[in-house]
Amino acid sequence: MSFVLEKVTAREILDSRGNPTIEIEAFTSDDQMARASVPSGASTGSREAVERRDGDKKRFGGKGVRDAVNSVNTEICGAVKGTDVREQRQLDNLLLALDGTENKSRLGANAILGVSLAAARLAAQNTRQSLWRYLGGLQANLLPVPCMNIINGGVHARGQGADFQEFMIAPHGAPTLAEAVRQGNEVYQALRLLLLEKNLSTAVGDEGGFAPSVSSNREPLEFIVHAIEKAGYRPGEDISICIDPASSEFYRDGRYHLHSEGSALSAQEMTDYYAGLMDDFPIVLLEDGLAEDDWAGWKYLYQQLGSRAELVGDDLFVTNVKYIRRGIEEELASAALIKLNQIGTLSETLDAVALCHQYGWGTFMSHRSGETTDTFIADLTVALRAGHLKTGAPCRGERVEKYNQLMRIEQSLGNNAHYAGFQTFVHRG
Ligand SMILES: O=C(O)[C@@H](CO)OP(=O)(O)O
Ligand SMILES: [Mg+2]
């Protein structure tokens, strides 16, 4: 079995929104092949690594992704030929040096990440290991709490629903991952019936959650608590709630504009608003409660609410150790969202997770709103003992496929599998 990278090739494919994205194939000198594809966000942080796409992300065959494809087929292919696919850091460093920019804008973070992931998968394949085992070794036995996004709002619902982007359920009381997926799905189905009873739309948003038109950000939480009970579970005991308001999207001129409620709040008022929600609903995790540039606001948020819920930075940290380190030093949050394509290589993602764990921070592994059926993040979550992940509703193939892969991994671990449960959510401060 060879480990020598012979060539990488790329093509343009569609993501789950029907927008173009990149797929990479990597080959060893004995003609073994592995494939990886790269997702794309809608509520992207401004400090994310730069993907090469058309401005509006909509044109298949447009310049952006085609340019990234060309770079892989020519420049990148020439540079990586001959590297050992097991030497992931060496390969990733080579790609960083080749690009030469701080934010991967020359070759494109999508091109770079696709090569990085395809090479890792090839190494796993040629060492005859599953990807999760190859990436995590013997410590890879922690199955994450699946945080299922069952109500979509914000830009993922084209502004027709709640201001908050994601309302997720976390079935942390389940004994196993498979049971958690089953429970989450039961709540999702119960929610559908509740919405229908109220004559609300059950059409879904980008991540498969329902996107009803509501008149406040409390209403989805009320529906969810009701759905948890209707499905036969205890809110807070068996199943809790995680929210990602993605507040950078409604932050302007120093205020948080909640259109559904007709208010514009300061960071302190927004924090009080969240405190009120935490009084009334079993919220265990709040992601991007404040905006990516509101560092002072985050400090206050953490002081007030760090002991009540895991406070996760997504747009704030963009999976970048530089910003996560600042967050740790200044005590701004208790966890980082982890998205491979925010930073652009596997090695840098491993560094971000290691830094978080070193300081007792949580790691919330995440898909993107524009996904492919690639299940790399499911394996990575188990490999890195990330503890909880979000990958949408238990609906829409590109989301379901990640949950299905986690169930496969759990089954192959047998008695050695351990379900993360409630303690995976970091509460402190
Ligand atoms: O904000 C987020 O956390 C993500 C994923 O749910 O959305 P997007 O991929 O659109 O940035
Ligand atoms: Mg987010």
TrEMBL record:
Pathway: Carbohydrate degradation; glycolysis; pyruvate from D-glyceraldehyde 3-phosphate: step 4/5
Residue positions binding substrate: 156, 166, 287, 314, 366-369, 390
GO molecular function, one term: phosphopyruvate hydratase activity
Record domain Enolase C-terminal TIM barrel: where: 140-427
Active site residues of this protein: 207, 339
Basic and acidic residues: bias regions: 48-59
Comment on bound cofactor: Binds a second Mg(2+) ion via substrate during catalysis. Mg(2+) is required for catalysis and for stabilizing the dimer.
Domain Enolase N-terminal: 5-135
Top EC class for this record: lyase
Record InterPro entries: Enolase, Enolase-like_C_sf, Enolase-like_N, Enolase_C, Enolase_N
CDD domains with a match to the protein in the record: enolase
Main location: cytoplasm
Cellular component aspect of the GO annotation: cell surface; extracellular region; phosphopyruvate hydratase complex
EC number: 4.2.1.11
Alphabetical list of PANTHER family matching this protein: ENOLASE
Assembly information from the UniProt record: Component of the RNA degradosome, a multiprotein complex involved in RNA processing and mRNA degradation.
Protein name: Enolase
Lineage: Bacteria, Pseudomonadati, Pseudomonadota, Gammaproteobacteria, Enterobacterales
